[in-house]
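User: Quick sanity check before I run a bigger batch. Here is a single chain. Can you write out its predicted 3D structure?
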Amino acid sequence: MRSAVPISLLASLCAGQAHAQLTLTAADHLPSIGQAFAYEQAAYVAPPPGGAALLYDYSTLTSTGTSSLNWIDPALYSNSAANPTAELALAAGPDTMLYATTAEGLELVGERNELLLLGSTVVLDIQHTNNLLELKLPLAFGDAWSDVVAGNVASDGSTGSRNGVITAVADAYGSVVLPGGTTAPVLRVRKELVETVQIPIGGNPVNVAHKRIQVDHYAPWLKMPILSSYVDSLTYIVSVVETGTRYMLADPVGLAGARMDMGVVVYPNPAVDVLSVAFMERMPAGTRITLCDAAGRVLRDRRLATAAVRHEEPVEGIADGVYLLQVATPQGALSTHRFVKR
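Assistant: Done. Predicted structure follows.
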């Protein structure tokens, strides 16, 4: 990525010119057990300033490898009994993060980390006494939060502590362009964690300063960020800094077939059971949603009973083929989307 420019100056690059603000919600953005997300890894690119209605162009990123983030049952975690409030766990390579969903959002309740410290691998089991609010929900542009994290650290039979603060803000919205040209509407969230982790090494507590700045781009239909960049540093005698960017592969999440028009996103394409219709701004009651076959014959005609930001259209019962879905507001705005049923 090289620049961030107003979408109004680049309307010809986008399917729709009206990019309304996206709000993250528990219904749309909390993951569940069994979900897996594939990412491409790339070199770190410093995020540009935030703002409203911006286009973030990451199309020049070059993949240096792949990784996978998998949401699993916390019972599969080797030390699950130490984190009884965990509802789901995120397996990321050798690390495991344990989460609970609360009225505030997604909270980190514990984790297992492998660190390389002064040439040696240190395994840490952490149980929080004060959970870390990692993602506040609901969340809209301009919303911010901070939270104190505290916990106990165990390693090699010895114990230490963890104390720190996370500060975060939804500092931008607009669209992101991925390698290959896929464009998606996003809300950007910047998080900064500053903490001291007391790591017990050979029975002696060692204070390690840890700082992580992560910038996540959330799309309306995904449970994980579509793109993230991060700078992570550990300081004890010397500093070890890890940086990078990861972006989601298009095929596993149906990005390649998603289409946005008039602030409406229709996905996945092809669809199998359910066609999701996400509205970038709240659609008023009375908005008409019409499903037609390729010849234009109306198969279903519905109206929103109340204002909504999302609609689920079941397609399991219709034959495989090409269909049209049309969204029409009471004010006369019209959006038509072609999709394939398989």
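Residues 6 and 39 are 27 Å apart (CA to CA).

User: Great, the batch can go ahead then.
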